[in-house]
Amino acid sequence: MKHEVITQESQEQAALCALGALSQHEARAFEAHVRESCTVCELDLDQFERAVGVLALAVEPAAPPAYLRDLLTARIKRENTEQQLAAPVIPFPERPASSLREQRPSPGASPSFPVLLPWAAAAALLIAFLISLTMWRTEHRALQAETERTRDALAGNIRLKAQLDKETASATELAEVNSVLSSTQWRIIPLAGQESASDSSAKVYWDIPGKRWVVTADLPPAPEGKVYQLWFVTADAKISAGLINPDTAGHGFVVVQFPSNLDQVAAAAITLEPEGGSEQPTTPIYLLGKTS
């Protein structure tokens, strides 16, 4: 089975294989697993083998244990005997502790404690460090993935909120328009784009008894520092009816009260004014719709 991510078990197998501490059966099984294109274990094994190789060359040679000569002599004699008897060769087993005690130690050798090679201790420490580092990297990648999931979830929530806000605004606009159309007397004033805004359009839904205008408009985004302003146009003056702030799609919606002191309105107009609006139009009319 190929590994998708590094595990503690796979790291231990790779480390022991690099040190030559696996049995023949375990080593063959692990090497076959690596040959099955498990890139995770192959990378770990390569790193551990490099570390062991560097450590083996970085320390002074150590003398072999005193009992090694006796072990080799006994094994050679046994293999010669087995060959003479035409018996199959049996792999030499590890020497049991009781057998080792029976051997006569050489002068100066300690019969009670095995010899620990310096490079083996250093290799064990380095492998432990590499395992810890790899596990940290694995946890770090998992944390990064969790952070990405959280960021995606937050972005999704923001998009969902924006969609809900848009749908709420559309529902409010539709309800206001329907309330005008349910009035006992109403009119619709279409506003057409003028020379500088031929593709723009707007409508005024006029609730005559309720003295209010419900205005919807489709406009291009206002330039920086500019805002759209609605006007009541009479024969003698232009009276501000408020500002229109389109959304990112260019759609604007506003409800304004019709001035009670106005008897006649000749038209509705929209201009592009400095941010905050103006007392009187300062630019040519952007959209215009006549009441008659």
Number of strands: 8
Q: Which value, in Å, is the CA radius of gyration? A: 44 Å
What is the overall shape?
Answer: rod-shaped
Strand order of the largest sheet: 5-4-7-8-1-2-3-6
Q: What characterizes the major β-sheet?
A: 8 strands, antiparallel
Order of helices and strands: HHHHHHEEEEEEEE
β-strand amount: 15-25%
Instruction: Return the average pLDDT rounded to an integer.
Output: 79
**Structural class by secondary-structure content:** alpha+beta
Distance between the termini: 82 Å
State the helix count: 6
Q: Work out the oligomeric state of the chains in this entry.
A: single chain
What proportion of the residues is helical, as a percent range? 40-55%
How many distinct domains?
Answer: 2
In the predicted model, the low-confidence regions spanning at least 5 consecutive residues are: 92-116
Can you put this structure into words, describing what you see?
The protein is an alpha+beta fold and 292 residues long. The protein has 2 domains: 8-104 and 115-147, no CATH class; 186-290, Sandwich (Immunoglobulin-like), CATH 2.60.40. The chain is 45% helix and 19% strand. The chain is built from 6 helices and 8 strands. The chain has an 8-stranded antiparallel sheet, covered by helices on one side. It starts with 7 loop residues before the first helix and ends with a strand.
